[in-house]
Design brief:
single chain; 233 residues; alpha/beta; 2 domains; 10 helices; 12% strand; elongated
Length: 233
Protein backbone atom coordinates (compact mmCIF):
# COMPACT_ATOMS: atom_id res chain seq x y z
CA UNK A 1 0.00 0.00 0.00
CA UNK A 2 1.40 3.39 -0.99
CA UNK A 3 2.47 5.65 1.84
CA UNK A 4 0.51 8.87 2.02
CA UNK A 5 2.54 12.04 1.55
CA UNK A 6 2.61 14.22 4.64
CA UNK A 7 0.70 17.51 4.50
CA UNK A 8 0.92 20.76 6.40
CA UNK A 9 -0.60 20.78 9.85
CA UNK A 10 -2.39 24.11 10.03
CA UNK A 11 -2.89 25.85 13.34
CA UNK A 12 -5.00 28.87 14.32
CA UNK A 13 -4.39 32.02 12.30
CA UNK A 14 -2.33 34.43 14.39
CA UNK A 15 -0.87 36.54 11.56
CA UNK A 16 -2.43 38.03 8.42
CA UNK A 17 -0.39 39.36 5.49
CA UNK A 18 -2.09 41.80 3.13
CA UNK A 19 -1.27 42.94 -0.35
CA UNK A 20 -1.74 46.69 -0.82
CA UNK A 21 -3.06 47.70 -4.22
CA UNK A 22 -6.59 46.53 -5.02
CA UNK A 23 -6.61 44.57 -1.76
CA UNK A 24 -6.66 47.27 0.90
CA UNK A 25 -6.67 50.30 -1.39
CA UNK A 26 -8.67 51.05 -4.51
CA UNK A 27 -6.68 51.96 -7.60
CA UNK A 28 -8.65 55.16 -8.09
CA UNK A 29 -10.84 56.58 -10.82
CA UNK A 30 -8.79 57.10 -14.00
CA UNK A 31 -11.13 59.90 -15.13
CA UNK A 32 -10.55 61.85 -11.91
CA UNK A 33 -6.81 61.14 -12.06
CA UNK A 34 -6.57 62.34 -15.67
CA UNK A 35 -8.54 65.49 -14.85
CA UNK A 36 -6.20 66.18 -11.93
CA UNK A 37 -3.19 65.57 -14.15
CA UNK A 38 -4.57 67.89 -16.82
CA UNK A 39 -5.01 70.63 -14.22
CA UNK A 40 -1.50 70.04 -12.87
CA UNK A 41 -0.01 70.67 -16.30
CA UNK A 42 -1.57 74.14 -16.19
CA UNK A 43 -3.62 73.64 -19.32
CA UNK A 44 -6.84 75.56 -19.79
CA UNK A 45 -10.27 74.00 -20.08
CA UNK A 46 -10.89 70.31 -19.57
CA UNK A 47 -9.38 67.16 -21.02
CA UNK A 48 -12.79 66.03 -22.26
CA UNK A 49 -13.35 69.28 -24.14
CA UNK A 50 -9.85 69.23 -25.58
CA UNK A 51 -10.10 65.70 -26.93
CA UNK A 52 -13.78 65.14 -27.57
CA UNK A 53 -15.80 62.23 -26.23
CA UNK A 54 -14.35 59.46 -28.42
CA UNK A 55 -10.68 60.25 -27.95
CA UNK A 56 -11.23 60.96 -24.26
CA UNK A 57 -12.80 57.52 -23.75
CA UNK A 58 -9.91 55.86 -25.59
CA UNK A 59 -7.44 57.65 -23.33
CA UNK A 60 -9.33 56.63 -20.18
CA UNK A 61 -9.43 53.00 -21.28
CA UNK A 62 -5.75 53.05 -22.16
CA UNK A 63 -4.86 54.30 -18.68
CA UNK A 64 -7.27 51.91 -16.93
CA UNK A 65 -5.70 48.90 -18.64
CA UNK A 66 -2.15 50.28 -18.58
CA UNK A 67 -0.63 47.47 -16.48
CA UNK A 68 -2.76 44.59 -17.80
CA UNK A 69 -0.05 43.23 -20.10
CA UNK A 70 2.97 44.31 -18.08
CA UNK A 71 4.26 40.73 -17.74
CA UNK A 72 5.08 40.74 -21.44
CA UNK A 73 7.72 43.45 -20.84
CA UNK A 74 8.57 42.86 -17.16
CA UNK A 75 7.82 39.21 -16.33
CA UNK A 76 9.90 39.22 -13.12
CA UNK A 77 8.48 42.41 -11.55
CA UNK A 78 11.86 44.15 -11.74
CA UNK A 79 10.07 47.51 -11.90
CA UNK A 80 9.12 47.09 -8.25
CA UNK A 81 12.73 46.88 -7.12
CA UNK A 82 13.71 50.30 -8.44
CA UNK A 83 11.81 53.62 -8.43
CA UNK A 84 13.80 54.64 -11.48
CA UNK A 85 12.94 51.48 -13.44
CA UNK A 86 9.29 51.77 -12.42
CA UNK A 87 9.14 55.32 -13.74
CA UNK A 88 10.88 54.31 -16.97
CA UNK A 89 8.51 51.41 -17.59
CA UNK A 90 5.53 53.61 -16.78
CA UNK A 91 6.72 56.02 -19.46
CA UNK A 92 7.16 53.20 -21.97
CA UNK A 93 3.62 51.94 -21.37
CA UNK A 94 2.13 55.44 -21.41
CA UNK A 95 3.80 55.97 -24.78
CA UNK A 96 1.43 53.36 -26.19
CA UNK A 97 -1.71 55.18 -24.97
CA UNK A 98 -3.34 57.44 -27.59
CA UNK A 99 -3.22 61.19 -26.85
CA UNK A 100 -0.94 60.70 -23.84
CA UNK A 101 1.92 63.19 -24.17
CA UNK A 102 5.00 63.17 -21.87
CA UNK A 103 3.91 66.17 -19.76
CA UNK A 104 0.47 64.70 -19.10
CA UNK A 105 2.03 61.31 -18.33
CA UNK A 106 4.41 62.89 -15.81
CA UNK A 107 1.55 64.74 -14.12
CA UNK A 108 -0.51 61.56 -14.01
CA UNK A 109 2.36 59.69 -12.36
CA UNK A 110 2.54 62.38 -9.69
CA UNK A 111 -1.18 62.47 -8.90
CA UNK A 112 -1.72 58.70 -8.98
CA UNK A 113 -1.00 58.07 -5.26
CA UNK A 114 -3.37 60.90 -4.34
CA UNK A 115 -6.17 58.88 -5.95
CA UNK A 116 -5.52 55.74 -3.93
CA UNK A 117 -8.19 55.41 -1.26
CA UNK A 118 -8.66 52.67 1.32
CA UNK A 119 -11.73 50.52 0.76
CA UNK A 120 -14.51 51.22 3.22
CA UNK A 121 -14.16 47.75 4.72
CA UNK A 122 -10.36 47.93 5.14
CA UNK A 123 -10.37 49.76 8.48
CA UNK A 124 -13.16 47.68 10.08
CA UNK A 125 -11.48 44.46 8.93
CA UNK A 126 -8.04 45.38 10.25
CA UNK A 127 -9.52 46.65 13.51
CA UNK A 128 -11.44 43.41 14.06
CA UNK A 129 -8.33 41.34 13.36
CA UNK A 130 -6.24 43.35 15.82
CA UNK A 131 -8.92 43.05 18.49
CA UNK A 132 -8.84 39.31 17.91
CA UNK A 133 -5.11 39.28 18.64
CA UNK A 134 -3.75 38.87 15.10
CA UNK A 135 -0.48 40.46 14.03
CA UNK A 136 -0.67 42.21 10.68
CA UNK A 137 1.67 42.95 7.78
CA UNK A 138 1.53 44.65 4.40
CA UNK A 139 3.52 42.81 1.73
CA UNK A 140 3.58 44.84 -1.47
CA UNK A 141 5.34 44.89 -4.82
CA UNK A 142 5.81 48.63 -5.08
CA UNK A 143 8.53 51.10 -6.03
CA UNK A 144 7.49 53.95 -3.75
CA UNK A 145 6.73 54.40 -0.07
CA UNK A 146 3.04 53.67 0.49
CA UNK A 147 3.07 54.40 4.22
CA UNK A 148 1.64 57.91 3.67
CA UNK A 149 -1.30 56.36 1.78
CA UNK A 150 -1.90 53.87 4.59
CA UNK A 151 -1.68 56.68 7.14
CA UNK A 152 -4.12 58.83 5.18
CA UNK A 153 -6.62 55.97 5.27
CA UNK A 154 -6.16 55.47 9.01
CA UNK A 155 -4.58 52.04 8.49
CA UNK A 156 -0.86 52.41 9.11
CA UNK A 157 -0.95 52.19 12.91
CA UNK A 158 -2.70 48.81 12.74
CA UNK A 159 0.22 47.09 11.01
CA UNK A 160 3.06 45.50 12.90
CA UNK A 161 5.31 45.60 9.84
CA UNK A 162 5.31 46.94 6.28
CA UNK A 163 7.39 45.00 3.75
CA UNK A 164 7.89 46.84 0.45
CA UNK A 165 9.71 45.22 -2.45
CA UNK A 166 11.91 48.20 -3.33
CA UNK A 167 13.13 48.36 0.26
CA UNK A 168 13.43 44.61 0.79
CA UNK A 169 15.20 43.95 -2.53
CA UNK A 170 12.88 41.05 -3.35
CA UNK A 171 9.49 40.81 -5.06
CA UNK A 172 6.47 38.56 -4.98
CA UNK A 173 6.13 35.75 -6.02
CA UNK A 174 9.57 35.03 -4.54
CA UNK A 175 9.35 33.27 -1.19
CA UNK A 176 11.80 35.51 0.74
CA UNK A 177 9.46 38.51 0.71
CA UNK A 178 6.78 36.51 2.50
CA UNK A 179 9.37 35.07 4.87
CA UNK A 180 10.53 38.56 5.79
CA UNK A 181 7.00 39.43 6.86
CA UNK A 182 6.55 36.17 8.78
CA UNK A 183 9.83 36.71 10.61
CA UNK A 184 8.90 40.27 11.52
CA UNK A 185 5.59 39.03 12.92
CA UNK A 186 7.16 36.07 14.69
CA UNK A 187 4.70 33.80 12.88
CA UNK A 188 4.98 30.32 11.44
CA UNK A 189 3.56 29.72 7.94
CA UNK A 190 1.02 27.28 9.37
CA UNK A 191 -0.43 30.08 11.50
CA UNK A 192 -0.58 32.73 8.78
CA UNK A 193 -2.98 33.88 6.07
CA UNK A 194 -2.03 35.84 2.94
CA UNK A 195 -4.75 38.08 1.44
CA UNK A 196 -4.33 39.52 -2.04
CA UNK A 197 -5.82 39.97 -5.49
CA UNK A 198 -3.22 38.28 -7.69
CA UNK A 199 -3.17 34.46 -7.83
CA UNK A 200 0.36 34.45 -9.28
CA UNK A 201 2.08 36.93 -6.96
CA UNK A 202 0.06 36.66 -3.77
CA UNK A 203 -0.85 33.01 -4.20
CA UNK A 204 2.85 32.15 -4.15
CA UNK A 205 2.74 32.37 -0.35
CA UNK A 206 1.18 28.92 -0.52
CA UNK A 207 4.57 27.47 -1.44
CA UNK A 208 5.70 28.32 2.09
CA UNK A 209 2.64 26.65 3.60
CA UNK A 210 0.74 29.90 4.12
CA UNK A 211 -2.99 29.75 3.53
CA UNK A 212 -4.06 32.25 0.88
CA UNK A 213 -7.23 34.15 0.08
CA UNK A 214 -7.49 35.74 -3.37
CA UNK A 215 -10.13 38.45 -3.74
CA UNK A 216 -11.12 39.41 -7.28
CA UNK A 217 -10.94 43.00 -8.50
CA UNK A 218 -14.08 44.87 -7.48
CA UNK A 219 -15.77 48.11 -8.46
CA UNK A 220 -17.02 50.38 -5.71
CA UNK A 221 -15.97 51.22 -2.18
CA UNK A 222 -16.35 47.78 -0.59
CA UNK A 223 -13.99 44.90 -1.38
CA UNK A 224 -15.46 41.94 0.52
CA UNK A 225 -12.75 42.01 3.18
CA UNK A 226 -15.21 40.84 5.82
CA UNK A 227 -14.39 37.34 4.54
CA UNK A 228 -10.96 37.69 6.15
CA UNK A 229 -12.53 38.23 9.56
CA UNK A 230 -14.73 35.16 9.14
CA UNK A 231 -11.68 33.05 8.29
CA UNK A 232 -9.19 34.40 10.79
CA UNK A 233 -11.26 35.24 13.88
Amino acid sequence: MAKLRSVAQFGPITAVLFDFHRTLVDGGDPVAALDAAWTRTGRAGSLLTALGAGRHQALVQGVYHLWDDVRSVDPDNQRDLSPRRHRELFGELMGRVPDMDPDLAQAYYEVMPEMWMAYEDSLPTLTALKRGGARLAVVSNVARDIRPVLARGGLLHLFDTVVLSFEAGVVKPQAPIFQLALDALGAAPANALMVGDNPYDDGAAGALGVRTLILPRTEGRSHGLDAVVRIAC
